[in-house]
Design a protein that fits this description.
There is one protein chain. It is built from 5 helices and 8 strands. By secondary structure, it is α+β, with helices and mostly antiparallel strands. Helix 1 crosses helix 3.
Length: 143
Amino acid sequence: MKIIGKSPSEQKIKVGEWTFSDQVGILASPYYQTLLLEPRLSRLLYLLASHEKSIVSRDYLMEQIWRDTIVNEESLTRAIADLRKVLLNNFPEGPKIDTIRKRGYLFSLGRTPKSLALKWNIKKKQVPVILTLIALIFWLLLF
């Protein structure tokens, strides 16, 4: 994990090849996929990613996300489930959140898109072209 940006208001976290901006709540993959997260999930992802490869306790997350609000642990459980679903639906081989029983959560990259590109022998610049061709073929098959 590396924090990049000139000021705290424009800080971004770079985890592997993934970039996350807490201010605007955008998670970006190295292959130009972007995802806008709701504020609750954005804060949760920021906290987990900034402690990459470390177990983050449930109490710490609840205190940081819902400082001035009284919530039960189910709120955090629901937020983790929502974030996992969003990450899985949009970045199947990307970041993931593991539950460490009775301790907290662990954020990891899973299998990174770079490793997939190497496996398939695809270069970064080729991905948009390949996706465009697939979309064109799909469109032609429909019509």
